[in-house]
Each structure stands twice: as C-alpha cells, then as structure tokens.
Design a protein that fits this description.
The protein folds into 2 domains: 2-192 and 458-477; 196-453, Nitrilase/N-carbamoyl-D-aminoacid amidohydrolase, CATH 3.60.110.10. The protein starts with a helix and ends in a 28-residue tail after the last helix. It is α/β, with parallel strands linked by helices. Strands 1, 2, 3, 4, 5, 6, 7 and 14 form an 8-stranded mixed sheet that branches. Strands 8-9-10-11-12-13 form a 6-stranded mixed sheet. Helix 2 crosses helix 7. It is 42% helix and 16% strand.
Length: 505
C-alpha cells in the first residue's frame, strides 16, 4: 500500500503528460495543455531534485509516447530511442526549476529551452509533438509571428503556471502571468505579416491510393501513374502545378528514366510550371530526395535537395552500432542531404518568382522556413509523403506545423501529399482547403506571392533563448519574492506525499 502511495505522484505526472498529448493533433483539445502544466506544477511543489526529475520525466513520457505513436510504422527503434531521450530531457527541465514558487517563471523557461534543444539535437533534431502544435489552431496560434515557436512553447507553460497560481489563490502572480500572455496575444494581431506582391493560380495534385502501405511494398510506377491520372483533373490554365514528395521514385538517376521524360512532356501539355518530388538512387550507398522545377517548355530549371533528413527513416545515425539490432526496421541506404538555400527560382509571366521549399518534415523546423523566406521566398511549398502510416497522428501534426509556418513567415503555404493531407494555408493561418485521406483530388486556389518579413523571420530564435537563460538564472540567483500560496509557505517541511519523507531544500 505504501509503495502504491509513493507511485501516485508518478502516475499523476504521467496523466498530466497524457493531457498534454491530447491537446495536440489529431485530438486538438488545446485547453488541456494549460491544465497539464497546472497538474505538473502541483507534483513539483516543494519536492527535492530526485522527485522533480522523475516526475518531469514521467510527464514527458505521458506526453511523447502517445503523441509520437505513429513512429512505430516508421521505425520502432527510433520511436523508443526518441521517447527515452526526450523523456530524460524533460526530467532535466523539471530539475532545473526550483521547488519553490519561483518555478512559476522558471519552468516555462526550462521547458522552452529543452524544446529548443530537442528540435536540433540529437540526430539533427526531432521536432515532433511540440508544445506549439497544441496551439496552432487556438488563440495563441498567431503569437508565432512575433518570436517564433519558442515563444509559443514558453506561453503554453506560462499559461499553465498562471492556472496553477490561481488554483493556489496566489492572485498577483496569476494575474501577471495571465496578463503577459494576453498582451503578447494582442501584440501578435498588429505585428507585421508581410505584403502582397501579386497572385498566382495554382493546382495541388494528390494521386490518392491506400493509406498505411509501406514504401517497400508499394509499386513505384503505380504511384506515379495515379498522379498522372489525377493531373488530368487540373483545370487549366494555371501558373503552377505542385506534386507531392517522391512520387517519382526510381532506382537510378532520375534524368535517365522514362518518368523524367514524361514529366517534361506533362509540363509542356499543362503549359505551366511543374514542381515534382523525386527520389533517386545516386549510387550503391546513397539516395537523393529533391523537388525539381520544370518550365512550361519542359526544361528542368531548378532543383532543391532536402537538407533536414529523417533520422532512422532517411539516414541511420550510428548505423554500424544500430543496424545489427534491428535491420528490418531501417533503410538499406542513407539519403544524401542537400546544402541549398531552400528556394527554387522560376519565371512566371516574364517575372522572376522565388519559391520557398520545405520538403516533408522540414516543415517542422522553423529554421528551414526562415531560411527560405530570408532568402527571398515569396511562397512556401511543402511537398510531403505520409502514405506509410496507418494513423493520422503525423499527418495532422504536419497540418498544424504548416499552419504555424504560414503565420510565422507571413506566407501562403501549399502542402501536397500523395494520399493526404494536401492543403492550402493563408498567412493568417486559415486553412482554405484540405483533401481527404486516400482520395484522388486536385486543389485549385488563387494564392498570393508575398514579400517582407515578420518579426519571427527577422530575429530568429536568439531572443527567446536569451530570455529563457535569464529567467532560469534569476530563479536560482534572486530571492524568492513571489507571494506564497494561501496557507502555505514557498519553502516547506510538509510531508506532501504522505510517505514519511520531509523535504528540506
């Protein structure tokens, strides 16, 4: 009975993490994010370092393992590895936050900094099931255009701390944190969003087909032909036709294939620019994943090779160590990363147009979108492929990420997927149209080319990183000046768990 009682704080922390998971797509119950952090705050109150670490890790496990469950279809080793690694990260975030009421501003800073780390390291970063995703379609969504997704990560946790303080009747800190969140939200409404240059008529092609079929078991030619057939639904004239990621999947250099010739002919018959996703074999050990631009005359004009590759999906970190353990779950050869500037240059109606490109999961990385727009991108394309996954967790989280990138950059975002979801987003984050899973469809829209920079694309991540470090430092170095919750002190010798232990910190 005593053991069960000691386990209850861990179970409650797991439950809190589960609430956070359900605040994210595909569930999207965004207020649960604030409740989750309020529950976690209760579990961290007046606890020693070991207790804070285990409860923070349990919170991370309850959050990440459900919200990234789709990874089982991609790589079971990767799913387990990222879950365990990042669970430890969030345990460290809880440890880095004081046990006193100073954690009300330290914990948001710590979680924001840990999010910044896991979006970049290890394996190049794994920005999945992120805190900002929970607010993509919520009132805080547009705050991303101020200081990017790190600001959103901070505000999610800060909102939870405001709720926690209010529940403890610490009215002044609760009011300050709530007012800060609201004022930032208001500021986002009047922040720069870029300016319209001119309009384009576009068509996004989704070939359709069964969802949940692994690429290794798919006839590549059949996928290609589905998109040829779906392209017949394009209502010409249009300026730009967009195909998804790697629907041209060949086992040699793409320029030497019949599919390449067919793409050239297709662009000519459409009398439009065609952006097609290709996956080619460069040599016995290496692949390439790219988007190629064909002009209305059928000429290949420009190409962008994917820079941010999927660990365990497109390359295997520490392959010599990992491959013997789970060879069936890993790609046989690595994809070579590109080194381009995330743009493709075309010419429409005699005027140059620079298209930003974020292939597949590059849309989860704010730095790739920022690089595209900072280099002059006037429209952001996201060709992707989630056809292997039988659930829609990944696909809906990608929709949320595309929405965030649209608001963050002040650009229209076009997302194309072979089996869904394909979609169009405005710079305000409005979803104009989205296909259903597995259907063959064409999205027609008139979109804007836009110029100018938002605050987020202008300043990047550094201001929020500095804020996080300063707040954490202040939490440990400054005296505790926050009002104690009613009936309790900020420091306590109370046996909070009823397990016979007394906390001194």
């Amino acid at each position: 009975m005593i053991r069960l009682h000691r386990a209850l704080p861990i179970l409650r922390s797991l439950f809190a993490g589960g609430l956070l998971a359900f605040s994210m797509p595909p569930w999207g119950w965004w207020p649960l994010a604030f409740v989750a952090f309020a529950v976690l705050d209760r579990e961290l109150d007046d606890q020693d370092g070991r207790a804070r670490t285990t409860r923070g890790a349990a919170f991370g496990a309850g959050w990440l393992f459900p919200a990234t469950f789709w990874m089982i279809d991609l790589t079971l080793p990767g799913y387990i590895a990222q879950g365990l690694i990042f669970t430890a990260f969030f345990g460290a975030a809880a440890l880095a936050s004081p046990s006193s009421t100073r954690r009300w501003f330290a914990l948001p800073a710590a979680f924001m900094l840990v999010e910044a780390i896991r979006w970049r390291w290890p394996f190049g970063g794994v920005p999945l099931a992120t805190l900002p995703m929970s607010q993509a379609d919520a009132p805080l969504g547009e705050t991303v255009r101020l200081m990017g997704p790190l600001l959103q990560a901070f505000l999610v946790a800060l909102g939870g701390m405001a709720l926690a303080a209010a529940l403890r009747r610490a009215w002044l800190p609760a009011a300050v944190m709530a007012a800060t969140t609201v004022l930032i939200g208001i500021g986002a409404q009047v922040a720069p969003q870029g300016t319209a240059i001119r309009e384009l008529d576009i068509a996004i092609v989704q070939g359709g087909g069964p969802q949940g079929t692994r690429a290794i078991n798919t006839d590549e030619r059949e996928v290609f032909e589905r998109h040829l057939e779906a392209t017949e639904l394009v209502d010409a004239p249009v300026d730009l036709v967009m195909w998804p990621e790697d629907v041209v999947n060949v086992r040699e250099l793409v320029n030497d294939t019949v599919e390449y010739t067919e793409l050239q002919a297709l662009a000519g018959s459409l009398d439009a620019w065609l952006i097609a996703g290709i996956f080619e074999r460069l040599d016995a050990e290496t692949n390439a994943n790219a988007s190629i631009a064909f002009s209305p005359t059928g000429d290949e004009v420009d190409r962008y090779d994917k820079v941010r590759l999927v660990p365990f999906g497109e390359f295997v970190p520490l392959r010599s160590l990992i491959e013997p353990l789970a060879p069936a779950y890993l790609p046989a050869r690595d994809t070579r990363p590109g080194d381009g500037d995330a743009t493709i240059d075309v010419e429409i109606d005699g005027e140059p147009v620079r298209l930003g490109v974020a292939i597949s999961w590059e849309i989860f990385f704010e730095d790739r979108a920022r690089a595209a727009i900072g280099n002059g991108g006037e429209l952001l394309l996201n060709p992707t492929n989630g056809s292997s996954y039988w659930l829609t967790i990944l696909q809906t989280q990608q929709v949320a990420s595309s929405r965030l990138r649209a608001m963050e950059t002040g650009r229209w975002v076009l997302q194309a997927a072979p089996t869904g979801f394909s979609a169009v987003f405005t710079p305000d984050g409005d979803l104009l149209e989205r296909t259903a899973v597995s259907e063959a469809a064409v999205i027609h829209q008139t979109v804007e080319l836009r110029g100018g920079l938002t605050v987020a694309t202008r300043v990047g991540s550094w201001p929020m990183l500095a804020v996080g470090v300063l707040l954490l430092g202040a939490a440990w170095l400054l005296p505790d000046g926050l009002p104690a919750p009613r009936g309790r002190s900020g420091r306590s010798d109370v046996d909070d768990d009823g397990d016979g232990s007394v906390v001194h910190e």
